[in-house]
Design brief:
The chain is an alpha/beta fold and about 325 residues long. Helices cover about 45% and strands about 15% of the residues. It binds flavin mononucleotide.
């Protein structure tokens, strides 16, 4: 897969996810063979005002690169300025969010609200393209109407403005994350477009990766919820793409990765903040295993690294017996 000047070892991409795709999480999926990781969506307004929390979303380490930095906002000049800041801070790709259906984003005219104003989209993409020379990508939805008319129009404008790839999550704004994504829209957009098209939506297994590539002809596959608590999806999918049988995830492998995630989290946030994050993250790693409820009860109260590590070790010891 190629995006502008960048070539990737496989077509597997981690979806930007607010509250999830922080640096510790990105390190884990990268180590599992994900070719491209992304920050969560970052407010362009916050960046140009040098908001401390906003800027912290740009923290990165060399081994996770190439890194895509996703921005949201609606003012073309602000977006261009923020794209320059992201580039200076080490982004390899700038991605613009045209798909967020959250009320607080829509009410500021950003995210999926932009798909209703195609002229503003053109101005915004023109400004950002002028401002940066690294690859520029966009992430869009079906739009506000199920036919996907807005998605076709925006993809065409993106191509005319020099955008290097388009990710399509084929759900309408009203669907948010419910219902089923309409992969036929990915195929229809791919047929007409000249830039790489990345498909997204409901990829939960390695077979789904192959199916999406075969059914839609897309160039890359972006995985979101399916990889949360299951980073092995990248390794297994990459195996399947090479015609190898995906290796199963053993209890030992699972425990090792969870402990590594705890280390990365503590390194990044410090012990107490990491513990708060781990309370919701750790149960996701064991949701398919027996007695996951008991594990959850234990880890939702952790306040130190040792408590988190003990919770994990006790749980896996009990499973083995
Ligand atoms: C908790 C959560 C946070 C998300 N945050 C973002 C975000 O910051 N930027 C974005 O473009 N999409 C975001 N999304 C959408 C995902 O990137 C992806 O498009 C969507 O989940 C569909 O893919 P999936 O079916 O593989 O999960 C988010 C989704 C979820 C569930």
């Amino acid at each position: 897969m190629k995006i502008g000047s960048l070539t990737f070892s496989n077509p597997l991409i981690m979806a930007p996810m607010a509250g999830i795709t922080n640096l510790p999480f990105r390190r884990i999926v990268k180590e599992m063979g994900c070719a491209l990781v992304s920050t969560e969506m970052i407010s362009a307004n916050g960046l140009i005002r040098h908001g401390k929390k906003t800027e912290s979303f740009l923290e990165s380490i060399p081994s996770e690169h190439p890194l895509s930095v996703q921005l949201f906002g609606s003012d073309p000049k602000t977006m261009a300025e923020a794209a320059v800041i992201a580039t200076e801070r080490g982004a390899d790709i700038v991605d613009i969010n045209f798909g967020c259906p959250a009320k607080k984003v829509l009410k500021n005219g950003a995210g999926a609200a932009l798909m209703r104003d195609i002229r503003l989209c053109r101005r915004l993409l023109t400004e950002v393209r002028k401002a940066i020379s690294i690859p520029l990508t966009i992430k869009i939805r079906t739009g506000w109407i199920p036919s996907g008319e807005e998605a076709f129009a925006l993809t065409q404008i993106a191509e005319e403005c020099g955008v290097d790839a388009v990710t399509i999550h084929p759900r309408t704004v009203a669907q948010k994350f419910g219902g089923i994504s309409d992969w036929s829209l990915i195929s229809r957009i791919k047929e007409k477009s000249t830039v790489p098209i990345i498909g997204n939506g409901d990829v939960l297994t390695p077979h789904d990766v192959l199916k999406m590539l075969a059914e839609t002809g897309c160039d890359g596959v972006m995985i979101g919820r399916g990889a949360v608590g299951n980073p092995w999806l990248f390794r297994q999918s990459s195996d399947l793409l090479k015609d190898k049988t995906p290796s199963p995830v053993t209890l030992d492998m699972r425990k090792k990765v969870i402990l590594k995630h705890i280390d990365y989290a503590v390194e990044y946030w410090g012990e107490y903040r990491a513990a708060l994050m781990l309370r919701s993250l750790l149960p996701k790693y064991v949701r398919s295993l027996p007695q996951c409820g008991r594990f959850r009860e234990k880890v939702v109260r952790v306040t130190t690294k040792q408590e988190a590590v003990d919770g994990v070790c006790d749980y896996f010891d009990a499973l083995r017996q």
